[in-house]
Amino acid sequence: MLPTIVSLGVALLLLLIIFTTATATASVTASASVPVPSAWPLQFHSLLFVNTSSFTLQAIDLWYDWPNSRNFNIIHKQLNNTLYDLEWNNGTSFYYDLDAQTCFTLHFDVGILRPDWMVDNSTYLGQQDVDGFTCNVWSKADFIVYYEDVDTNRPVHWVFYTGNNISGKTPQCILSFSSFPYIYIYALCFHLLQKICCPNSINGRGGKEDI
Predict the structure, then answer these.
(1) What is the four-CA torsion angle of 58, 110, 152, 180, rounded to 10 degrees?
(2) For labelling, which of 5, 50, 84, 139 has a CA lying 20 to 30 Å from the CA of 74?
(3) What's the rounded Cα separation, in Å, for the pair 93 and 195?
(4) pLDDT by residue (tens digit) across 106-159?
(5) H-helix or E-strand containing 23?
(6) Phi, then psi, of 32 in degrees rounded to 5
């Protein structure tokens, strides 16, 4: 009787090992089949086209500079002045209108976006054709729907909870910012800041895309 019980125990153990291995393999396969958003380059320049929730159009020169904890948006509003938005990782953003010689500040608790800001806690929604590209699509925290080109893993389109739609041109990776107008505008902004002292500070409760 004892050998029979031992044989049965060994058989059950083998079945348990086979079942556990198969389950783990299936879990890894399923996990590997779900795409994950790609992290951004640490530094890049990109041209963005924005259709706001109020149906106004904007073109934005985005200069992303994670190693130096700053992000710079040059916001070209349709039939209006250009707005310069200089954001720092401490949550402070400076908005300058060089034509009107005005500026104001906003504070956001988050700071600038991390290169991998979409990787964690995003929900995969499948694939969709947008702006002529087949994209993987994710949502995050009821804040944004994010579209990434399947072939190149580059961001193509964003839809914010406010209704603002952004389409992006292929980002250009930047090895050095010293030869770009970024530095000139950057210095000009701080000259203006020193001139008028930016006395008005507002706590930002909305998203930066609302500006």
Answers:
(1) 60
(2) 139
(3) 17
(4) 898 888 999 999 998 899 999 999 989 999 999 998 889 999 999 999 999 999
(5) helix 2-33
(6) -70, -25
149 neighbors 134 (Cβ within 8 angstroms)? yes
Three-state DSSP at 15 gives helix
Q: Distances from the Cα of 66 to the Cαs of 28, 33, 58, 72, 107, in angstroms?
A: 32, 30, 24, 11, 18
Average pLDDT of the residues of the chain: 74
Is the pLDDT confidence value at 20 over 60?
no
| Sign of the dihedral through C-alpha 122, 112, 131, 165 | positive
The Cα 194–Cα 100 span in angstroms is 15
Hunting for tokens 């953003």 — which residue is that? 93
Which residue spans within the chain are E strands per DSSP? 43-51, 57-65, 70-77, 82-88, 92-97, 102-107, 123-130, 133-140, 144-149, 155-160, 165-168, 172-173, 201-203
